[in-house]
Amino acid sequence: MKTTDAADAAWMKAALALARRGLGQVWPNPAVGCVLVRGGQLVGRGWTQKGGRPHAETEALWRAGDAARGATAYVTLEPCSHHGKTPPCADALVAAGIARVVVACRDPDERVNGRGIARLQAANIPVSEGVCAAEAEELNEGFIHRVRRGIPLVTLKTAATADGRIATASGQSQWITGDAARADVHRLRAEYDAVLVGSATVVADDPLLTCRLPGLEGRSPIRIVLDAQLRTPLTSKLVQTARDVPVWLFTAKPADEPAAHALRAAGIEVHTVELDREGFGVNFRQSFAVLAERGITRVLVEAGGLLAGSLLVDGLVDRLELYRAPSLLGGDAQPMTGTLKITDLAQVRRLDRIALRTLGPDVVESFRIRP
What we know:
The chain is of the alpha/beta class.
């Protein structure tokens, strides 16, 4: 049953706001929010906790206690119906005496996908579906990608001048954007499971790739390096901090290479994958499939132009976060993407702008990339 009741939508938006707190922290699980309402009053709330458990419904029921009986539960994703590391949330809602459940969207996981709703209905609990469905699907697009496509959601982040340049001809790029924009990138990292760069960026910039905003230092994502030839220096910041914040490296070199042994000894998780079809870099799709198998749902790519262009050519980028500075570097500077192999305007990559914000002197534009 579907509903368009305004009160239902308002409570579901509150649940969605709670769900956002889990982004970047709950993989391999989805980020879910739940609010319990009785007599028009909030009696309990919860969101998926770090590592994916407890689930949102369990948290909300625990906070509500006896007040949950007779309440309406607003859940951003269909309650689970299978036994995993925690019992089914659908059963918990039934046991707590919930009178009605409002679900934003179904869980595409084949272990759930309608079974959670069916379990609630079998207990004579009315279920309304589709409230704020688009917002809920957007929030958990990474989880949905992983389930349906076997790869994570991939977002390309780049900082460029007004003429689309990311560095001078000699490679200088620090700093194109201002303090507010750079701080926002740290916030963005905190919402992703992993942040990914190529070995060229590691060699040229020696990035740390952590979240260093006050209060969010513990939300740094897994750091991923695509390094076909094992060029990552043992002296780099990523290697030196690998035991503090995990680093996973993908290479085309054999696992028994001395350089691979040295990286593993430093605390880095090394994965050997195939070369790409041109024989230069790692196979992107295979690398992303491994990430999905490990539970990663959302990847933020902070790459140079060559890697960015290659990912776009392979059709692996879903979103673009473009931080644009009011400055010019000219045609001899490095572009934000390498070649996209476009020979005719009919092949142009189309973007849909979904957000536009001002950060000090800079502008950040959020785009969805059309298939």
